[in-house]
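Continuing the series of single-chain predictions for the mutant panel. This is the parent chain; the variants come on the following pages.
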Amino acid sequence: MAVVGASRDPAKRGHQVVAALRASGFKGPVYPVNPAGGEILGRRVQVSIDECAAAAGEPPDVAYIGLPARLAPEAVRACGQAGVQAAIVPALGFRESGSAGARLEDDLIQAARSTGIRMIGPNTSGVLNTHAGLHLIGGEPLPPGSLGIVAQSGNLALDLMTRARESSVGVSVYVGVGNETDLQFHEFIDWLAGHEPTGAIAVYMEGARDGRAFFEAVGRAAARKPVVVLKGGKSTAGARAAASHTASLAGDQAVFSALARQFGAVEVDRSDELMAVAEALVLQPPARRTSTGGPVVVTDGGGHGALAADALSGLGCPPPKLAPETMAGLRELLGPSGAVANPVDMAGASDHDPAVLARAAAMAAEDPACEGVLVTGMFGGYAVRFDERLAPDELAAAERLAAAVRGKFLIVHSVFSRRRPRSLEHLTELGVPVHGSLERAARCVAALTERGRQQQAPRPPAPPPPAGFRGSSAADGDTAESAAWMSEPEARHMLSAAGVEFVQARLCATPQEAAAHAEADGGRVAVKAVSRHLQHKTEAGAIRLNVCGARQTARAAAEVLREAEKWLRAVGLPETLDGILVSPMLPTPVTELILGVRRDPCYGPVLAVGRGGATAELDPDIAIRGLPVNATTVAAMCSELRCAPMLQGFRGAPAADLAAIARQAAALAGALEAAPELREAEINPLFVYEDRAVAVDALARMANH
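Parent structure:
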């Protein structure tokens, strides 16, 4: 390794890196590089990277560029020309600092690409590989561990390293991705997936250069080892700027969370959960899912039991009911005061005999519905709370507890965790995670449950989209301002050509023509004003339903045109109207859905399926997947919705035709694939019947290039 910009000043990074490599036991040769020459920490300083390569007999594998931003491009170019394979650039002052920094970053990437050198950074918080003794993040060296971390924040890196020192799994590799100017998230995740010492991967991400490639790498890695992700910057700016229901419902964070689930990652919401959940996934076996299974809560206090049950239920893994024979055994063990239904409450039975809690956990673990055990309460502190002579008994109970639940997961929450009693330290030594936060312990249980579900009911990640089917990036100008909405008839024409089945509709130029068409049709009709500036007709008062006869149709047509003009004028949009759309009223459906596809600026093409109608945004009920999808995936999306009972035949009503929903979704996705200029399209509502699904209204937005 070469350290370009090495310094004799202990306060400078170029000195600290040389010192850290020596302290961490880096086994390869280290060559300080500085034009001033001399000696640093007993090592001769080379005056250039070329002299360094000559001294080594071959180019260094990696160069650490400890120079200011303005000098980094030339240093990277010199390293590349000398045959160095990779560079680490920690300097700040590139695109994150404004237009001048962006130009400097362009120079940096040009230097890398012209010479073939690969680069981490700039603005990277450093690189760590404990198994190689490579320590380039500052602070004290860490012992080798099994958790790989890829992060986008220097401060969070410091936090994670602090937590790693307290963790029983430790860190194998840390990479601060920085600006992703060259090497990107997905490349690091792919590498960690094949890195044998790494047992799980933890990711902190604010944004990725290629979000779809990120999730495809997550999917490949999650097939081999757990991947835990924490997303920062959960912005809704994209949703606020969009006019379609789909874009507002499938906002940035909604898309991220949906793709995390689709590609097999476990997502956490808090910084203190990232390391904790990853540690649990390394140390404990995932749940072995059963149709009625879940975690068993064993507690020595009713309050903790109730809170644990609430937390687990809120995380989607409610405690299941135990078998009668299990409850009978627990009743015999705990006596009449104990609660045995799950949560299992000691009710004082373990206060002076900690072994009782271990025996209760062993009984619970044998129950067919038990997928793992969460112990919560005072365990580990009985000697503190009641009698110090209980310490040996509690230590023995800890040993028995860990052995009794072996084969299923065990997570412990203790109010005495901060006092670090020997019994809890021993549990940690045995690979049992111990937490002082009940909520964090419950999140670990939920992660083990989720991981078990992923492994036992594998849903292979969607294959990469066909060529040209990735979403465009924000840099390509994919914004609401750079794209144009189509009128409903135009959207219908495009989507019909892709196979979407619509209710028939006639575009009429005048109220009189609309009346004549309605009279010829002979039934009740819907009357809508048409304008490409009119995405939400109900909001503008530009739609009338259940209109009957020529006279009512003429009056309704005149009203919707007048209301549309008034609304467009009020919001400052062109008062351009293309006529009136008249379509027959359909029978009441089983339910109304919304189907939407769009090219997400970061994550590529996505499909949204949700409860539809004019009020869809008031109480969002939506499922999202990355495209492409198949009929099985669409059916699974429908089953996730809160309105799923309506689709399944609620209270004797007919069930919806899921195959017809899937056909309409496939056709909508096909339109996106066939037309690269199509940015988003939406059907709302989709009337779903027991034998068909009919699109009633449509929106589409095209790139305005």
